Each structure stands twice: as C-alpha cells, then as structure tokens.
Amino acid sequence: MVSNNAKEVFIQGITQDGRTFRPSDWAERLAGVMSPFRPGGASPGSHLSYSPWCIPTTLGGVKCVVVHSDLRDYDVMAWDFVMNFARDNGLQLAEACLLPDPPPAK
C-alpha cells in the first residue's frame, strides 16, 4: 500500500520474488498509456511525450516508472490504474518525496 503523503512512487521492474519483469519495454508502454494525463489535460500531440506525472526511467539498472502524486489529485482512476498494474503484476514499489534543489555553489 502507498501512503498518502508520498510525493512520488517508484514502480520497479522487479517482481516481489526478485525476477525481472517482462517485456523489457513495460515501463515505456505504461508511461505511454498515461501520456494524456498531464497538467492542462490532453492536447493535440500530447501522445508524443510522456506525462510529467508518469515517467519511465532506469535506476541502478532496473527499469522503473516514477509516478507523481499529482496524478492522484488530477484523476484518481488513472492513479488506481497505475497502482493496480503494479499490484496485479507483483511489482515492487518504493515511496519517495521531492527534495529541494541544493543552493547554488558560491
């Protein structure tokens, strides 16, 4: 379960039993499906870029999708879809919060 105060949730491409999740492009596919869910809503051409609320990435050699809590605030059914995808496929979740950028070096 994901707590309500987490700002970001990392859906990791590792199953609960430690196997690598397949297919290898699962993160890009999931983020592609979520591309219309973005600030200001879908617009012409928005399907050509990922939503800032659902971004595929690789961390430590593991495919992940970073899901921002703003997605939950914008459309709870979209949030549930992503979280249910992780649960249904037995994927590991990690919560995170945004840290402020460090001050510029002087």
From TrEMBL:
Q: Which Pfam families match?
A: DUF3579
Could you identify this protein by its name?
DUF3579 domain-containing protein
Q: What is the lineage of its organism?
A: Bacteria, Pseudomonadati, Pseudomonadota, Betaproteobacteria, Burkholderiales
